[in-house]
Design goal:
63 residues, mainly alpha
Length: 63
């Protein structure tokens, strides 16, 4: 496992543990927080879908 993958897993695991604990201790705050995330993600998805065609891979410099 590469170093950046290990760091990513440690960060993600710690974030899940902290958020899980906070949900148990302050559920009402997280109801609003999670609803906000769904609203933002839905808006972003609609904007991307209705936005225009995506640029080619060649124009982004990927190989």
């Amino acid at each position: 496992m590469k170093t950046h993958e290990r760091i990513s897993f440690v960060f993600t695991g710690a974030a899940y543990l902290i958020v899980g604990f906070l949900i148990l201790t302050r559920p009402r705050f997280f109801y609003y927080w999670i609803a906000g995330i769904f609203f933002i993600q839905g808006s972003v998805s609609l904007i991307r879908a209705l936005g225009g065609p995506e640029p080619d891979e060649s124009s982004r410099g990927e190989k």
